[in-house]
Amino acid sequence: MSVTTSELPEERASSDTATLRSGSLGTADIAFFVVSAAAPLTVMAGVAPLAILLGGIGAPVGYLLAGLTLAVFAVGFTTMSRHITSGGAFYAFITRGLGRPVGIGAALLALIGYNGMEIGVYGLLASTTRDTLHSLFGTDVPWLPISLAGLVLIGYGGFRSIDFGAKLLGVLLVAETGILVLLAGGVLVKGGAHGLSLGSLAPAHVFVPGTAAVLAFAFAAFTGFESTVIYRREARDPERTVPRATYLAVGFLGLFYAFIVWVAVQAFGDDQVVRAAGKDPAGLFFTAITTYVGGWAADLMHVFIITSVIASLLAFHNAINRYALALAEEGVLPRRLGRIHPRHRSPHVAGIAQTVLGAVVVLAFWAAQADPYQQLLLWVNTPGMIGLLLLQLLAAIAVPCYFRRVSHQEGSLRTLVAPVVAAVLLATAIVLVVGHIDLFTGASPAVNTLLVIVSPVVFALGLPLAWWLRRRRPEVYAAFATEPAE
User: Fold this and answer.
1) Which residues, by range, are in coiled-coil regions (predicted)?
2) Which of 251, 273, 477, 483 could make a disulfide contact with 469, Cβ separation 3.0–4.6 Å?
3) Contact 248, 27 (CB under 8 A)
4) 82: phi then psi, degrees, rounded to nearest 5
5) Residue 85 phi/psi, 5° resolution?
6) How far apart are CA 388 and CA 52, in angstroms?
7) First and final CA of the chain: distance in angstroms?
């Protein structure tokens, strides 16, 4: 009688028979991965002041609108997740809706997008850690050792079991959101600078020229929320867990972002916050928490920004590994990348490859004497962000195309109306992001043009790759994203 992998002790299962640890993740665990990837504290302290500076006191509404758009997208997205169970998530959905050539292009785009979102953040880890050490201890350290130490730490976290990662992210997420809640409590108890105001919700303050820039920042703040479906194979009762985690993550991020930005406005007052943001955008939240809570809380916020970045890195690292695993199982990437650790049940070979790739990019920027924030973070992150937005758009378009061709019992609201509305809104979001790309990068027009075209070019390369696979490896092409991964 044959013995299944699930019956083998973890220590005895070989790399060839080991599988991902099914049934390990509940709704909260998956939500932790998604929300941690967004790095709420880093987004608020590092980016929200710029949103306030450009959009004024109506900035909180921009985050609500972005959250609402992605909630509409999630309707069709999660509906399709009940019908397509491949570990390839985005590219599997797009393949089934729009065809294999488009799906293969989407697979390349997913690899570039998620790697860009993670690897660039090693520059942010270096800059925030360096700034924190200087702020707290007056010491100056080079950035390269910090980034390399981060690579080792994240590589180890991805090597361990998925439930280990979920527990770690849970602790880090509580820390970073907790410090923001502490700030909110201080502001609310003391009534803000001049009393609490709802002026941020007034149409006159929302519909201003800077709102487009706020929306661009807001959509970027949700990047990675769609990775819930990547963990389907490790989820408990995935048909319920994955949709719940998706809506929980989007709802939490949208409401939490809007609330915290509103709190920041109250901390300085409707008539003073824009001036304060313009004077010291990087210090806006630290000034607020020092005023309303105390200097010790500002020191704690500095430390928790580092842990926020670490949590984001680990979340993206795990997502990348599972995409690489799925593509290795498909035969598009080398099969070796699909090996799973017999004890930890993690895609450890894919994790090692991703860590090596990150090290190569980090070392290349260091050798070029680049700035870890201005170049490594912004120049690598920006194409990743655009790539993931393009994937969301393609997935939204794929939903009605897929359901039009198959028999199902889903309602038209989920399979047609919501996806079409989401596609229009996501296309608008991409236009806003590209139109304000200089706000994200601070780079020259030539560099910005290059950063914008990376994702479309990578996607376009999928077409000749699809042609090559169809001619040279027809069995791989024929089976691509058509069967659930084992």
Assistant:
1) none
2) 477
3) yes
4) -75, -20
5) -110, 10
6) 25
7) 20
Q: Where are the alpha helices (DSSP H) in 272-377?
A: 273-279, 284-292, 295-330, 348-367
Complete DSSP assignment for 8-68: S-TTT--TTT----TT-B-HHHHHHHHHHHH-HHHHHHHTHHHHHHHHGGGHHHHHHHHHH
222-255: b (≥16 Cβ within 10 Å) or e: bbbbbbbbbbbbbbeebeebbbbbbbbbbbbbbe
Q: Which region, left, alpha or beta, applies to residue 191 given φ > 0 means left and ψ of -120 to 50 means alpha?
A: left
Amino acid, res. 486: E
Residue 324 · residue 347 · CB < 8 Å? yes
Q: Phi/psi at 221 (nearest 5 deg)?
A: -70, -15
Enumerate the H helices of 191-237 as residue ranges.
203-206, 211-221
Q: Please tell me the pTM assigned to this model.
A: 0.87
| Contact predicate 74/247, CB 8 Å | yes
Query: pLDDT truncated to tens, each residue of the chain (486 aa)?
Result: 333 333 334 444 454 556 766 777 888 888 888 888 888 999 899 889 989 998 999 999 999 999 999 999 999 988 988 888 776 678 889 999 999 999 999 999 988 998 998 999 999 999 999 989 988 888 889 999 999 999 999 999 888 877 777 788 888 888 999 999 999 999 999 999 989 999 999 999 888 888 888 888 888 888 777 677 777 777 788 888 888 888 999 999 999 999 999 999 999 999 999 999 999 988 999 999 999 999 999 999 999 999 999 988 988 888 888 888 888 888 888 888 888 888 878 888 999 999 999 999 999 999 999 999 889 998 998 998 899 899 999 999 999 999 998 888 889 999 999 999 999 999 998 998 898 888 888 889 999 999 999 999 999 999 999 999 999 999 989 888 775 443
| CB 97, CB 398: distance < 8 Å | yes
Q: Interhelix angle for 284-292 vs 238-268, to 10°?
A: 80
Cβ 392 vs Cβ 226: under 8 Å: yes
- The answer to whether the beta carbons of residues 308 and 42 sit under 8 Å apart is yes
Q: How many whole angstroms separate alpha carbon 229 and alpha carbon 169?
A: 18
Q: CA-based angle 157:160:165, to the nearest 5?
A: 60
- Within 10 angstroms of residue 309's Cβ, the number of other Cβ atoms is 26
SS (H, E, C) 114-183: HHHHHHCHHHHHHHHHHHHHHHHHCCCCCHHHHHHHHHHHHHHHHHCCHHHHHHHHHHHHHHHHHHHHHH
The number of angstroms, rounded, from the C-alpha of 45 to the middle of its chain's C-alpha atoms is 17
